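Worked Example 4.2. Read the sequence first, then its structure tokens.
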Amino acid sequence: MQIHPIDLHFQGQTEIIAAYLIETGKDLALIETGPGSTLPTLLEGIRTLGYSPEAVKHVFVTHIHLDHSGAAGWWAQQGATVYAHPRAVPHLVDPSKLIESAQRIYQDRMQTLWGDILPAPAERVVTLKDGDAVKLGKTVITAIDTPGHARHHHAYAIGDVCFTGDVAGMKLPHSSYVSVTAAPPQFDPVAYGDSLQRLHAANFSKLYLTHFGEVTDVAGHLSRYASRVEQCYECISDLLAQGLKGEALREAYGAAERAIATQVGVSDADWAKYEGANNTAMCADGIALFCEKSPR
């Protein structure tokens, strides 16, 4: 088995969104598709590796946020089989609610950011439950139910490596700062902690983050990230207790995160990448939503 990371150059930036092409023998598998806006880059990346996109027969969706699976419907329409969490499958077959929700948020930036979001033919979509495995030649890809960022989230294990989607956060390859992925509406710090503990107990040798790349210090990363999830939750809880809401809350949370990043040497250019992959204003909204629904 060979793993090929492909940088999708989201919005012209490197190290924002990755897709992973997996050699499984006769066919190819893809973990993460990225959004429709980066589909041409993904197809070119596959060709650059010496493969035809038509050889991609299996597509694994970690969750249905558009930066991860916006192009999944296109692949299904080409005849690939798409695998996803039970809660995600209906939205792949009929993405109208996803599109409507995203349109309200992104308005005239919708097409530029996310491109076309196509429905997946129902017969091309396979539901995977926790622990379900797909055998592709000698390669076995196993779904791991990992809520916390989203209730419809799978990580995928192949042997002793794991493709984590958003459940292990966002980190640039050369940086020690880890950004907590907490976009609304399903952030849950308790579920997050349980999922991270589960990944920790699996003793993976490597993690592959969608945002962004390979992590070899698995135990250290998961431990630090669990602490960061709690830290960000505490930060929003404290800001809410101070009476901050709306834009004031977003600005305060963004400033707090920028200060943490600055302490470990994150440059302005790299901070722009962090914000491009995992916007702090949106994360503030996601954490605040949990706090409002589940007050202490």
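Now turn to a second chain, presented in exactly the same format:
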Amino acid sequence: MPTDHRSPVPARLTVLSGPSGVGKGTVVAEVRRRYPEVWLSVSVTTRARRPGEVDGVHYHFVDGAEFDRLIAEDGLLEWAEYAGNRYGTPAAPVRERLATGAPALLEIELQGARQVRARAPEAQLVFLAPPSWGELERRLAGRGSETRDVQERRLAIAQAELDAAGEFDVVVVNDDVARAADELVSLLAAPSSERTVGASE
């Protein structure tokens, strides 16, 4: 993706999803570091803040009542419950971004990606996959922030998510963060006609 801000890019919504522990946040952070012009939606969540996380940067942290209000007012493009917590994408910032003629990137879970596909069929869905199942297990175990029970629950969910990879337009393997970040940025900038057709199509 050229770093020249004058280069035209399509106003397309791109969704990045994949199993827990695959490195979605790491890849997105690398994209933002190398290509700061890439706009990423900040999700809302009822999950407790982890050490080092900043409200409004990593997530908008809200309580259950505020999340209920956003749902009732149709303020979320998508939302899902995952591992006992709820996550959602505020709709207004995404619509405002696309209205300027620039692309927008969402990093969300599988349930949310399916909702976006239903509500915005023109969106590009990208699945981030691990190099292997063993590597995914290692990454989840290495987090250190969750109990073994939570890790096992996440692994069970991750297996179901991996099985859904065929629903996505493109699969990117996260075997190298820099390479995966470059591939994601190229997908953000590519015309719709250059999209890779997924196995489900």
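Notes for the reader: The first strand starts at residue 13 and ends at 17. The chain has a mean pLDDT of 86.
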